[in-house]
Amino acid sequence: MPDWIRLLWRLPLLGLHVFIGIPIVLISFLPGIRNLPLASMRLHQWTHQLWSRWMLKIFGVALDQRGQLPVGPCLIVANHISWLDIVVLHALWPMWLVAKAEIRGWPLVGKLADLAGTLFIQRGSEASRRRIGRRMAALLKRGERVGIFPEGGIRPEPGVGRFHARLFAPALRADVPVVPVAIRYDRGGDLHEVMVFGPGENFFGNLFRLLRQAPSTVQLTVGSPLKGQLGNRSQLARQCNEIVKGFYDA
User: Fold this and answer.
1) Quick check: helix, strand or coil at residue 232?
2) What pTM was computed for the model?
3) What GO biological process terms are annotated to this protein in UniProt (predicted)?
4) Confidence band, pLDDT 50/70/90 cuts, at residue 111
5) Contact 244, 180 (CB under 8 A)
6) Which domains does the chain have, with CATH numbers?
């Protein structure tokens, strides 16, 4: 199918999904109904996950999930390839995500991230890191799931970069497990270089390019939960890094 034909039908679907789907999801977040039980989730989690999974379908991305998150609060640590990774992790389970502050200003995604409960961190700011760290620890102690991309940014080249250890500390303070998760886009081969921003490409350019892409799969591999001890965040980060690399390269 020519790229322009895919764009012709996917773009209107995206518009409907955003302008009709988001208000429906927001209604489910209202006090009094947000915590209504639905299967193993709360109502607002179920609608959020469903919205995210349909978002992937509109982009022609099939979710291939391998493994399950543990029951209860945990810190999810994943490699980072595309802004679509945020949707992928919410399709796994609606969670609080830590993301760079610049995303708040992105069209569409910034607003969606804000509404979904994203914790925006200012890169290079120690005060921002400490504030976000305290917020993460409080959420984990409250029983929530929190996700981070510990590479600290998106690599233009394929593969998994080094995991920075600082944002592992809240999981140790809250005494909850850390779960390594690998994200890999595939279409008969690794699509890292297709999914990342191209040279000089802005958000809308990337969005329209991804909407035109042929169907693909996102392999989401969930590892076993790990526990660390206070003071050993660097060791825990290295361990998770090696596990995610192994999943990605498999």
Assistant:
1) coil
2) 0.93
3) phosphatidic acid biosynthetic process
4) low
5) yes
6) 61-249 (3.40.1130.10)
